[in-house]
Amino acid sequence: MVKRAMAIGVATLLATALQAQDRPAAKPDLDAIMHADSAARRATYPKMPDTRGTGRYPAEKIVDPAFPDHVVYRPIDLDALGDRKLPVLVWGNGGCSPDGASARLFLAEIASHGYLAIAPGAIRSGPGAPPSTEPPSNKLGVDTTAEDVRAGIALAAAANAAPGRWHDRIDLTRVAVAGTSCGGLQALQLAGDPRIKAVVVLHSGIFADGSNPIEGMHVEKSLLETLHTPVLYILGGPLDVAYPNGTDDVKRIAHVPVFLADHPVRHLGTFAKPNGGNEAQVTLNWLDWQLLGDEKAAKMFTGAECELCTNPEWTVVRKGID
Questions:
Q1: Is the residue at 67 inside a domain?
Q2: The CATH number of the domain where 241 resides is what?
Q3: Per-residue confidence in pLDDT tens, the chain, 322 aa
Q4: Any domain includes 241
Q5: Which domain range does residue 249 map to?
Q6: pTM, whole model, 2 decimals?
Q7: Domain-located, residue 4
Q8: What domain count does the chain have?
Q9: What span, in angstroms and rounded, lies between the C-alpha atoms of 124 and 70?
Q10: First-last CA distance in the chain
């Protein structure tokens, strides 16, 4: 059974897709692979130090009273931004867990390029986390909801309007939603919000067999019809338990542009790599293109010689993107 732990995507919530009819015996045991990946990650990721990212604005992970029940990633020196305001990324944690630090290296990297990233929950892993007394659970369920993710937008608006360090620092016209695994489903639940201008779904997708195995969450393919912006999917190859669901989503989406970036890193992606690995860079370029109109960032996705299209480490599917 797919194990659900506090770290990213350990509770993948996509296990039902593995129970495909007539599954050939020769196929790899994806459930066992997921268990092994999760165990290895639990042994190493919590011990990694926080990082400040590679952008021009070194970032930090903080708990701020302006954002109750959320963890914030922001440039340390807001004055260094000058007149630049912070676009907002609201984030869905892997496993829909309450660990707002579960993607800390990834989100700090995004923040270091001049973004405000907001994840629901508290610091429950890595530096600053209290000792864990909870063993990994087999339960497939949610401890945060899409509404907890959505609340990050309202909190950002309130902080921007109030006196203090956030006042008039946040760009509420440039808001994105992203998430991984169960958090990717939360991102899709929020994608129809008119305030959302960019969507990134990592290692996730709506269940291809129409099931709803996650206690406390109901999703169906009709949710894809609520998309009103271009959407980026990042998957980890056929050994990613989200692969059948994410690729099925991409096949079905026809009314908005969609870009699928697939590489063989399995379900846990590159979140435990320094600065979030190459998935953070792909996400960052998508945000820079979609939110800021950055033409250099767009080259990663557009044109016959797009950077991901010509990179042998990636397999690309594009629809509605030249």
A1: yes
A2: 3.40.50.1820
A3: 333 333 333 333 333 333 333 333 345 565 666 566 666 666 789 899 999 999 999 999 999 999 999 999 999 999 999 999 999 999 999 999 999 999 999 999 999 999 999 999 999 999 999 987 565 555 667 999 999 999 999 999 999 999 999 999 999 999 999 999 999 999 999 999 999 999 999 999 999 999 998 989 999 999 999 999 999 999 999 999 999 999 999 999 999 999 999 999 999 999 999 999 999 999 999 999 999 999 999 999 999 999 999 999 999 999 999 9
A4: yes
A5: 15-319
A6: 0.89
A7: no
A8: 1
A9: 11
A10: 41
